[in-house]
Write a structure and sequence with these properties.
This protein has one domain. It contains 2 helices and 4 strands. It has a 4-stranded antiparallel sheet. A hairpin with a 5-residue loop joins strand 2 and strand 3. The C terminus is likely disordered.
């Protein structure tokens, strides 16, 4: 019942609803700047998806994440992770 009310609330007001959660348990949580988890949100009004990457001591949105990967400020491959990022409309 509560889940139905919560989804209705998100649908009426167009908030982003968490769709999928990925946790990276193999990363040392003491390292500042290491990725800790990723949440994929869906906007129930228009069906758009967005991905938010959370890091230790902060978070970064998907656009900045892609930009930082392009200018090589950090490398995901060094950590042994393979993250495929796709933003698409349903």
């Amino acid at each position: 019942m509560f889940k139905t009310i919560e989804r209705l609330w998100y649908r009426l007001f167009g908030f982003w609803y968490p769709l999928q959660y990925k946790n990276y348990k193999d990363i040392s949580y003491s390292k500042t700047g290491a990725p800790s988890h990723t949440v994929i949100y869906i906007n129930l009004m228009n069906g758009k998806l967005k991905t938010v990457h959370y890091f230790n001591k902060g978070y970064i949105n998907e656009d900045m994440f892609i930009l930082m990967r392009k200018i090589k400020l950090f490398e995901i491959d060094e950590l042994g992770l393979k993250i495929n990022i796709k933003t698409e409309e349903i």
